[in-house]
Amino acid sequence: MRANPAQISIFVVAAIFLLVIFGRIANEKNYVPGSLVNGFSTALGRQTTQSFMQTSERLWAKTVKERGELRNVIYGQSDVGLFPAQTEQTLAAYPFTIWDMVPASYNCPFEVERVGRMGEGGKWVCGMSRYEKAKSPVVLYSMGIQNDTSFEQQMMARTNAELWAYDLTIVDIAPFIHPAFRPRVHYQQFGISGTTNPHNVPPYFSILDLMAQNGHDYIDILKIDVEYAEFQALSSFELATRQPGMEFPIGQIIIEIHLFHGDGTTVNGPLFLDWWASFEARGMRPTWAEPNLLTVTMKSEDEMPRLAKYSWINVLDTRGKLWKNS
Ligand SMILES: *[C@@H]1O[C@H](CO)[C@@H](O)[C@H](O)[C@H]1NC(C)=O
Questions:
Q1: Residue 144 φ/ψ, nearest 5 degrees
Q2: pTM
Q3: pLDDT in tens, 41-71
Q4: CATH no. for 49-314
Q5: CA–CA distances in Å: residue 260 to residues 173, 302, 307
Q6: Rounded-to-integer distance, Cα 317 and Cα 250, Å
Q7: What is the pLDDT of residues 274-309, one digit of tens each?
């Protein structure tokens, strides 16, 4: 059978393709470094964790710079709100929402995995395999759970995590925890706040006072979903731990942010961005974001997308299980 010109060109293209592929594989062998700085491989495998983190830091810093510039433009003159693009005209003037100003621009140097139920309750964890390999117990704090324990239970199934859990609304968490995990769960019906008020019913506690009560000076993972109380609770913790030479004592924060308005809430664009930056200053970097669109679909609040989940990791942390084999 004689090949027609179309068949010949397909053959030529295929041959070039194979040459390129084999050339790549041969080259990539030479990229593998002799040693990995921290003794474990990274998301890219061919880079050391340190060089990967340098790249992540650069990508994050770029968005911090852009945020500063955009902030001057939009909040410099007047407060245009958190979701200024609502018509063709306002979209042209303000083509973004507040969430665009805090992108999850720091690439987690490990795998990112959604842990827990698909949908409500599930959370994104940077470096799940690092926690799975940990020898000492993963200190997991969970604030704001209700009866939705899919994240906490999967963490306990996959790692040796010990859980300290708090919620305003649930008297006992045991009915929502598999019996096999209950010995590793410590639960109290407490609210989370910037200042402790033990006389309230139920009592309110600051994060620092809860840690002191439990004898902790470090948390591996803090999951916090406390319906707006996150602003005061985390601010007071950040201020209290802002001591000379003191690291921010949390390895990873998995947070749901509630930009509520009305009913005594005061958060606006500049306040939110200052709050956010105060954690970046301590080494927290946003590695993942997921919008929670329930205020839109359930037509609550003003139907604006006021909720979002973020996963922050602490890159200045020297104790954390992400960076140390412990
Ligand atoms: C959790 O509470 C909600 C509403 O109160 C209820 O519909 C749901 O069945 C509960 N889930 C579990 C696992 O008990």
A1: 90, 95
A2: 0.86
A3: 444 555 788 999 999 999 999 999 999 999 9
A4: 3.40.50.150
A5: 27, 9, 8
A6: 8
A7: 999 999 999 999 999 999 999 999 999 899 999 999
| Ligand 1 centroid to residue 176 C-alpha, Å | 9
The ranges assigned to domains in the chain are 1-31, 49-314
Ligand 1 centre distance from Cα of residue 147 (Å)? 6
Give the residue, out of 117, 145, 147, with the most ligand 1 atoms within 8 A of its beta carbon, to mutate for a pocket test.
Answer: 147
Stated length of the chain = 326
Is 147 near ligand 1, meaning CB less than 6 Å away?
Answer: yes
CA distance 287 to 277: 15
Exposed/middle/buried for 194, CB within 10 Å: 0-12, 13-18, 19+? middle
Of 76-90, 169-183, 217-231, 274-288, the poorest mean pLDDT is in 76-90
Residues near 153 by beta carbon (within 8 Å), at least 6 away in sequence: 116, 177, 178, 181
283: left (phi over 0), alpha (psi -120 to 50) or beta: left
